[in-house]
Design a protein that fits this description.
CATH superfamily of the largest domain: Methylglyoxal synthase-like domain
Number of helices: 17
Mean pLDDT: 93
Number of domains: 3
Strand content: 15-25%
Helix content: 25-40%
CATH topology of the largest domain: Rossmann fold
Largest sheet: 6 strands, mixed
CATH architecture of the largest domain: 3-Layer(aba) Sandwich
Distance between the termini: 50 Å
Structural class: alpha/beta
Low-confidence stretches: none
CATH class of the largest domain: Alpha Beta
């Protein structure tokens, strides 16, 4: 059924075609000043919003559509909408908007008046109102969708499902527009990034408001963090925050994966144990400690180049050491952990998921072998799984009750990750006899279990869930291993 459409477009591409299509279908076209003039010049009849508002514009064009009459016509629903229509008042059935092109100048200075003037207010407000009232109004956000909208109306496909889809698109567009504005305005207020993962890639960081996590962290010393620093820092802080107990714990990370992790009675002891497992990889990496960095720990770090050191606090003695290490950044982290949805981008889409909040509750799990793990082995299984959770899949971690002994990360097959973990422990001169092993996913075959038994591993924790679980259990029993199923997978891609 023909209705009334409101058009307000900076970019006029597709505007005339949309208006003509609607007019031919019997719709009445309303438009804001510039858009109305554009359509009339091309022979498309259009009523001006001035007839509703009584104003052409205010403040030199800054205010044209911000008026109760326009928003009443967009937002009216139910009995209000029926009453307005019965009185002959205008209610809109379609709102088509194209914003000021802020993104074209978003890299300009926020202090430049020309940049500020391209922040659209009326357009986003009108399309958000239309999207909120999608049951009655078709929200057409951005010139790129005008052809699709015209076709849907002409073919009678402008039903609730279509309008709901357009409403989602409208809020997606406004959220990206607002993010571009926010990132422009915060220039100078947030750390700059020299480049992305590689020098030829430009990069930026945007912090949530109110500040939390890395947005609330304080740079105690050194230059601002790089793109890769933030990625490694996030991995390190996530793991160290989930280490067993509440005493000192240290995690060393390189390229997103832990290369050492341990607990101790002091931060220095925890570092020494973590570093013992791999004395090569941490060079140029990131270190996180769950307790205060003191002078004793800083003494232990002499000779080890770290890009970044994260801790909840730094003692005065440690600060003196930090002042001498110009190339190492020190970041004081706030309390708490990630609670919001996590996001990653793929081409044309954003993937969202809840955070994997840790391994509490994974153990004691379900014992599936004839032999149960000892108390000490269970402690080792717990530590191994917590480190394994923060390691890229396929992940294998071999550990005792205090530290990781060997870590295998990111291999295409699980047995390759196991071989890597065993090789790293051997390279460090650490015995895995009687140690425990954690796997972030199930074992698809018994070969990994057999290899672990041959190496002297005493206990294994894994999620279970393979169609060959019985094969894995049989291999564990044959090798005299204890094995626990948690029923919870901790993949990290």
């Amino acid at each position: 059924m023909p209705g009334k459409a409101l058009l307000s477009c900076w970019n006029k591409e597709g505007t005339e075609a949309l208006a003509r299509s609607l007019t031919e279908a019997g719709w009445e076209i309303w438009a804001s000043g510039g858009t109305a003039a554009f359509l009339r010049e091309r022979g498309v009849p259009a009523r001006s919003t001035e007839e509703l508002t009584g104003i052409v514009s205010l403040l030199g064009g800054r205010v044209k559509t911000l008026h109760p009459a326009i928003y009443s016509a967009i937002l009216a629903e139910g009995a209000d909408r029926e009453a307005m229509a019965a009185r002959g008042e205008t209610v809109f059935d379609l709102v088509a908007v194209d914003f000021y092109p802020f993104e074209s100048c978003s890299q300009g200075s926020p202090r430049d008046p020309e940049v500020t003037e391209l922040i659209d207010i009326g357009g986003p407000c009108m399309i958000r109102a239309a999207a909120k009232n999608w049951r009655h109004v078709i929200p057409a956000a951005g010139a790129g969708c005008f052809e699709e909208v015209a076709r849907a109306v002409a073919e009678g496909r402008d039903d609730e499902e279509f309008r709901l889809s357009m409403a989602a698109s409208a809020f997606d567009l406004t959220s990206r527009y607002d993010l571009a504005v926010s990132m422009n305005l915060e220039k100078g207020a947030v750390p700059g990034l020299r480049y992305g993962e590689n020098p030829h890639q430009a990069a930026w960081i945007h912090f949530r408001r109110p500040a939390e996590g890395f947005g609330a962290a304080v740079l105690e010393s050194g230059d601002s963090l790089s793109y890769n620093n933030y990625l490694d820092a996030s991995a390190a802080w996530d793991i160290v925050s989930d280490m067993p107990g509440d005493g000192p714990a240290v995690v060393l990370v390189k390229h997103g994966n832990p290369c050492g992790a341990a607990t101790g009675s002091t931060a220095r002891e925890a570092f020494s144990r973590a570093f013992e497992a791999d004395r090569e990889s941490p060079y140029g990496g990131v270190m996180a400690t769950r307790t205060e960095v003191d002078e004793d720990l800083m003494e232990a770090l002499k000779g080890l180049f770290l890009e970044l050191l994260l801790a909840p606090s730094f003692a005065p003695g440690a600060e003196r050491h930090l002042a001498k290490r110009k190339k190492m950044r020190a970041l004081r982290m706030p309390p708490g952990s990630e609670t919001r949805l996590q996001s990653r981008t793929v081409w044309g889409a954003v993937l969202l998921q809840e955070p994997d909040r840790g391994c509490d509750g994974d153990l004691p799990g379900r014992i599936v072998t004839a032999r149960a793990p000892s108390v000490e082995q269970t402690r080792a299984l717990d530590l191994a799984m917590r480190v394994c959770r923060g390691t890229k899949s396929n992940a294998i971690v071999i550990a005792d009750a205090r530290s990781a002994l060997g870590i295998g990360a990111g291999q295409m097959s699980r047995i390759e990750s196991l071989r890597m973990a065993l090789a790293r422990a051997a390279r460090a001169g650490l015995s895995v006899e009687g140690a425990s092993l954690a796997s972030d996913g199930y074992f698809p075959f018994g070969d990994s279990i057999e290899a672990a038994a041959a190496a002297g591993i005493a206990a294994i924790v894994q999620p279970g869930g393979s169609i060959r679980d019985q094969e894995a259990i049989a291999a564990a029993d044959a090798g005299g291993l204890a094995m626990v199923f948690t029923g919870k997978r901790h993949f990290r891609h």
